[in-house]
Each structure stands twice: as structure tokens, then as C-alpha cells.
Specification:
This protein has 247 residues and is an alpha/beta fold. The protein is built from eight helices and 13 strands. The strands form three sheets. Strands 1, 2, 3, 4, 5 and 8 form a six-stranded mixed beta sheet that branches. The longest helix is centred in the C-terminal third of the chain and has 19 residues. The chain is globular and about 50 Å long. The protein binds beta-D-glucopyranose. The site of beta-D-glucopyranose (BGC) has 15 residues, from helix 3.
Length: 247
């Protein structure tokens, strides 16, 4: 039996996480390795960490990277949670050159979404499926009959006077304002109401850090549509990045 492996690297605002993924089953075949994201999160500093992750696994083969920004053909087009010097950088080319092998790139929420659709809560679900990662920011991945509409950036909508809704409704706002899960949940609920009004999804999959505590606030979410927790948890970004490496 041929085993189809790829290295997935999930780059976040606070941690850069990697693992080797068996694409036949969408599971990590190694321990997950995490290195804190350097601050400031500049191209040079983050490229250094990426090299360390590739060296850690002594990996030669397909590499995919999930990045917390708009990424089009490898180029970074926004920088909400990374240093602004990333804007306009061809990150795929930079990373490929530094590790001496091709590196593919995509948005981090799009990666998590691909993983959930491929192996998690979205398997065999057609229609409009919206995957939301609720953590430091809010990431979004929109699927229509299993096909990704990339870079939707629904964490940056304006809502109820908040110019950037993720600053108010992401899990990081809960920490920043020392809110309990049940004090924060109505914010997420209001946000879900709004995105469900805009897109009429058949299914919403909630991922990111907040999904690990889904049971603490699920009963406070009104049934705007079917809403379920992501199943791949903190592996989704790595698995989706690995999928993109060969996709
Ligand atoms: C970024 C998105 C990202 C999300 C989750 C947002 O601030 O703009 O690109 O997907 O955070 O990391």
C-alpha cells in the first residue's frame, strides 16, 4: 500500500505548528511540533522558524503552509495578526527558497476548512458550508458543494458599530476583557446570526480555540442553522496545509 504523506505547517499569530500527515486518513503520523511565533512576526524571523520545523522532521517531500492572512498565489495581501512587512511578500517563494523545496501556501481558515470538509465534520455535506475558526481572530472558509471560495475574511465584517467584528467576538476578546464563556457567547451568537443572514449556510462548523469549549456555550447559540463543533480540533490547520501541499 502506498502511503501519501505531506508536511503541514500551521502558522498562527502565537504559534507555528507542524506535523507529517497521512493524506489517506487525514491524521498526523508524528507528534505535533510547536514553536512560538517570533515577535515581531516578520518575514525573516518566521522563515527562520519554518526552516527549524522542516529540519525537525528531516523532511523532504510536499510541504503546505497555512498562513493567517489573505494569500493569493503565494502572495500575502493582508496582515491583521502578523507584521505589516508581510504585505505584498511572495511568501511561497520565500519559504520555498529557504528550505530548498517547493512550499505551497493558503489562508489558515481555508486550510482548517479543507480538513473539516475532507476528514471532519463536513464530510459528505453538500450545499453551502461555512467553517469559522474562532480564536485569536475569526477566520472563515466558505464551501459550495465541497468547493472552496478562498479568502472570504468574514472576521473583518462591521457589525453593531464594531468596525472589525473579530475584535469584539473572537475568543481573544473574551480573554482580553476577562469574560466568562457564557458572557461572551451572546457575541458569537449575534455574529452567527449575521453571517447566516448573509450566506444562508446549510451547516456552520465552528473551529479554532473556542471549539474546544463548545459544550460550555453551545446552548446559548440560537438555531440560526445547523451548528456543530469542528472535529479535527488543533490538527485542522496542519492537515489542511498538508492537503494543499499536494492539491
Ligand atoms: C485574518 C484571517 C485569518 C483569521 C484567523 C484574521 O485576522 O485576517 O486571514 O484567517 O484571522 O487566523
Amino acid at each position: 500500500m502506498t502511503v501519501n504523506l505531506a508536511l503541514g505547517i500551521d502558522i498562527g499569530g502565537t504559534g507555528m505548528k507542524a506535523g507529517i500527515v497521512d493524506l489517506g486518513i487525514g491524521e498526523l503520523v508524528t507528534e505535533r511540533e510547536r514553536i512560538p511565533t517570533p515577535q515581531p512576526a516578520t518575514p525573516a524571523a518566521m522563515t527562520g522558524v519554518l526552516e527549524r520545523l522542516v529540519d525537525h522532521f528531516e523532511w523532504t517531500g510536499p510541504i503546505g503552509t497555512a498562513f493567517p492572512a489573505i494569500v493569493k498565489r503565494g502572495v500575502v495581501h493582508s496582515a491583521a495578526n502578523v507584521d505589516h512587512s508581510w504585505l505584498g511578500v511572495d511568501a511561497a517563494a520565500l519559504f520555498s527558497e529557504s528550505v530548498g523545496q517547493p512550499v505551497r501556501m493558503l489562508n489558515d481558515a481555508d486550510a482548517a476548512g479543507l480538513a473539516e470538509i475532507g476528514y471532519g465534520a463536513g464530510v459528505d455535506r453538500d450545499g453551502v458550508v461555512l467553517v469559522l475558526t474562532v480564536g485569536t481572530g475569526i477566520g472563515s472558509a466558505l464551501f459550495v458543494d465541497g468547493v472552496l471560495v478562498p479568502n472570504t475574511e468574514l472576521g473583518h465584517l462591521q457589525l453593531d458599530g464594531h468596525t472589525d467584528v473579530e475584535d469584539w467576538a473572537a475568543a481573544s476578546a473574551r480573554d482580553r476583557e476577562s469574560l466568562g464563556w457564557r458572557d461572551w457567547a451572546p457575541r458569537l451568537d449575534r455574529y452567527l446570526e449575521h453571517v447566516c443572514f448573509l450566506f444562508s449556510p446549510d451547516l456552520v462548523i465552528l473551529g479554532g480555540g473556542a471549539s474546544k469549549r463548545f459544550e460550555k456555550f453551545a446552548d446559548l447559540l440560537r438555531p440560526h442553522t445547523e451548528i456543530v463543533a469542528a472535529t479535527l480540533r488543533n490538527r485542522a490547520g496542519i492537515v489542511g496545509a498538508a492537503m494543499a501541499a499536494v492539491g
